[in-house]
């Protein structure tokens, strides 16, 4: 008799793999924003999760306004238009927040921008609750979401859509950072802010661009998340936290690391519940255990370089 | 109305205890901890469980609450404080959520989301201190605040306090002066957590019931606001901060404008306080307490 594998069956394994990848892809998009900002300014943008929430709301409003009635090619286009709208709004919001709440604190103590960021996060989530109510809203789906069955694995069209958007975004970002002039300037600024300034890079502009890109990615993630869960004012808090953990796991400040960390965390959560039998109620705990473990074992993260503190 | 003001003052006292702990961590060592609510919850549940299930008295549960919270503080502090301070913020934020998660799910011990009811009242010399008789409870709470203030004030005037401030100003310089930075940071964190546990005990015998829903992130943010608004590194100032924040948070009820002012208003205001204070007055209303040079070093 063949020994029963740990996973119920191969099909079930692939099922969890798919679920984990979609979740992880979303985490990865959010983690990118954290890691890029941390790479340059060395501070955790606590408001990142709330920027995600705002982007998600804006996308949802645009989509529900323009989608029309019948499902079809137009609803699909409307979906992407709404996504771009959410991204643009979040990008602008991210730049404004940076300008108003973080820039004046550039030379302050380490604690100051962190506290300011927490304040911003709190303002955003409560303003959203104030303006749009605390009731969660549902995104009207852009197309039929009947799962596609393939050899015992069922994949929803939404998961496919999420995976495609995530992969495209990552490739675009990677190309942008690696090949473009601004991307080069971003890498230089993150390597050494002062030297970059001496080389004629307008650091303030680069920081603004970094916030814009990070926030746009967060909005994308938020809008994709709206396909799977509902949209509500505090949706960004836990998701943002986990994405930050993902960024740390991958090595904070490292773009490929954020992608890897996000996907790993998504897989860990899905498989943790499905295979290790962690109760669903404690699902959110997994990320923090992962954080503590990585800080104990390899504090610089999987792809990060260990940094010696200089005097 | 008087009763309502007394209620606010009782809460001010309970929160002032937490703010004293937060001040030690954030004001003195310059570390961002976002989980006073978590330690508050641990203290509350320690008292609730020990009094209802084991028949202990309130007074014997207070040291247990303090020790338990302090121990958890030690356990989170140990791995995270070896590294840069930023990770502490995230680890503590996560910890607060985990505590609430566990309280919600560990039905056999915590009774899940229902919480624990019918906590016996605190007694002193056989006399019950009923939360309904607000004056006596007010005195109890503020006696705790006074003791905590004196203890923490003396503590930070000692070698520990000087070491902590040295770490805040320059960690590398501090460690080259022979200060074991990790040890002191973990101690500060554990002591800051312990006092929040005591506040939790008081909360339990004041409300006479505990539910996980009370211990939200909101609580941690309020405590943080108290410290930032009053003045980091100044225990008197954070008690003042506790007053102001508590009065702001009950402002709609005090002015009778609950219909006009939305419930989110105060939360937005707390957020604004953090941002505005950081930009225009990072030292807080009263500012940091000036340290006088120890005798013999005076010029």
Give structural notes:
- The complex is a heterodimer of chains A (311) and B (299).
- Chain A has 311 residues and is an all-alpha fold.
- Chain A has a single domain (10-132, 154-297), classed as Orthogonal Bundle (ABC transporter involved in vitamin B12 uptake, BtuC), CATH 1.10.3470.
- Helices cover 71% and strands 2% of the residues of chain A.
- Chain A has helices at residues 10-41, 48-66, 73-102, 111-132, 157-179, 181-191, 193-198, 203-228, 235-250, 255-274, 283-297, and strands at 148-150, 153-155.
- Chain A has a two-stranded antiparallel sheet.
- The termini of chain A are far apart.
- The longest helix of chain B has 27 residues, at 2-28.
- The radius of gyration of chain B is 19 Å and the shape is globular.
- In chain B, a hairpin with a 2-residue loop joins strand 1 and strand 2 (127-129).
- Chain B has one domain (2-216).
- Chain B has helices spanning 2-28, 36-53, 58-80, 86-105, 107-110, 134-156, 159-169, 171-176, 181-207, 217-230, 235-249, 251-255, 264-280, and strands at 122-124, 127-129.
- Chain B starts with a helix and ends in a 19-residue tail after the last helix.
- Chain B is built from 13 helices and 2 strands.
- Chain B has a two-stranded antiparallel ribbon with strand order 1-2.
- Helix content of chain B is 70%, strand content 2%.
- Chain B has 299 residues and is mostly helical.
- Chains A and B meet through helix 4, helix 9 and helix 11 of A and helix 4, helix 8, helix 10 and helix 13 of B.
Under the CATH scheme, the architecture of chain A is Orthogonal Bundle
Distance between the termini of chain A: 65 Å
Give the low-pLDDT segments of chain B: none
CATH class of chain A: Mainly Alpha
What portion of residues of chain B is helical?
Answer: over 70%
* Major beta sheet summary of chain B: 2 strands, antiparallel
TL;DR?
The complex is a heterodimer of chains A (311) and B (299). By secondary structure, chain A is mainly alpha-helical. Chain A is built from 11 helices and 2 strands.
């Amino acid at each position: 008799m063949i020994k029963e594998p740990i996973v119920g069956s191969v099909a079930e394994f692939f099922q969890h793999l798919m679920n984990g990848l979609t979740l992880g892809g979303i985490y990865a998009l959010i983690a990118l924003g954290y890691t890029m900002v941390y790479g340059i300014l060395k501070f955790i943008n606590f408001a990142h999760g709330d920027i995600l929430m705002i982007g998600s709301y804006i996308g949802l409003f645009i989509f529900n306004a323009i989608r029309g009635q019948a499902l079809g090619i137009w609803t699909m286009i409307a979906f992407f238009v709404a996504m771009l709208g959410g991204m643009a709004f979040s990008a602008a919001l991210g730049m404004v927040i940076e300008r108003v709440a973080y820039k004046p604190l550039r030379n302050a103590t380490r604690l100051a921008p962190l506290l300011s960021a927490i304040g911003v996060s709190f303002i955003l989530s409560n303003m959203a609750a104030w303006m749009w109510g605390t009731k969660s809203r549902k995104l009207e789906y852009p197309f039929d979401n009947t799962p596609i069955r393939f050899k015992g694995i069922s994949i929803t069209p939404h998961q496919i859509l999420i995976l495609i958007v995530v992969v495209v975004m990552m490739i675009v970002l990677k190309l942008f950072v690696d090949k473009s002039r601004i991307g080069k300037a971003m890498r230089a600024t993150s390597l050494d802010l002062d030297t970059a300034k001496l080389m004629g890079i307008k650091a303030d502009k680069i920081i603004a661009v970094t916030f814009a890109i990070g926030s746009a990615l967060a909005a994308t993630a938020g809008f994709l998340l709206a396909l799977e869960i509902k949209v509500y004012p505090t949706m960004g808090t836990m998701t943002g936290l986990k994405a930050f953990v993902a960024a740390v796991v991958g090595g904070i400040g490292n773009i490929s690391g954020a992608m890897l960390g996000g996907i790993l965390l998504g897989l860990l959560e899905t498989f943790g519940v499905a295979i290790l039998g962690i109760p669903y109620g404690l699902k959110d705990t997994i990320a923090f255990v992962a954080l503590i473990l990585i800080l104990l074992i390899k504090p610089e993260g999987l792809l990060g370089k260990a940094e010696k503190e200089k005097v | 109305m008087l009763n309502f003001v007394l209620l606010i003052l009782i809460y001010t006292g309970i929160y002032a205890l937490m703010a004293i702990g937060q001040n030690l961590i954030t004001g003195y060592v310059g570390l961002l901890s976002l989980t006073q609510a978590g330690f508050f919850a641990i203290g509350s549940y320690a008292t609730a469980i020990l009094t209802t299930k084991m028949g202990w008295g309130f007074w014997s549960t207070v040291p247990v609450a303090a020790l338990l919270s302090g121990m958890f503080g030690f356990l989170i502090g140990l791995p995270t404080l070896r590294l840069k301070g930023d990770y502490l913020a995230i680890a503590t934020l996560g910890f607060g959520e985990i505590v609430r998660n566990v309280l919600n799910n560990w039905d056999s011990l915590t009774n899940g989301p229902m919480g624990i009811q019918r906590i016996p009242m605190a007694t002193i010399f056989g006399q019950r201190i009923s939360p309904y008789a607000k004056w006596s409870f007010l005195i109890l709470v503020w006696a705790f605040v006074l003791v905590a203030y004196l203890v923490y004030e003396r503590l930070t005037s000692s070698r520990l306090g000087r070491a902590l401030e040295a770490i805040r100003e320059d960690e590398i310089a501090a460690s080259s002066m022979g200060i074991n930075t990790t040890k002191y940071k973990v101690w500060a964190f554990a002591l800051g957590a312990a006092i929040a546990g005591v506040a939790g005990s008081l909360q339990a015998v004041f409300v006479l019931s505990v539910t996980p829903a009370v211990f939200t992130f909101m609580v941690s943010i309020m405590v943080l606001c108290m410290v930032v608004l009053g003045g980091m590194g100044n225990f008197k100032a954070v008690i003042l901060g506790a007053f102001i924040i508590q009065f702001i948070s009950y402002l709609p009820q005090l002015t009778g404008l609950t219909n006009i002012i939305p419930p989110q208003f105060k939360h937005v205001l707390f957020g604004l306080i953090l941002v505005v204070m950081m930009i225009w007055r990072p030292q807080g209303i009263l500012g940091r307490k000036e340290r006088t040079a120890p005798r013999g070093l005076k010029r």
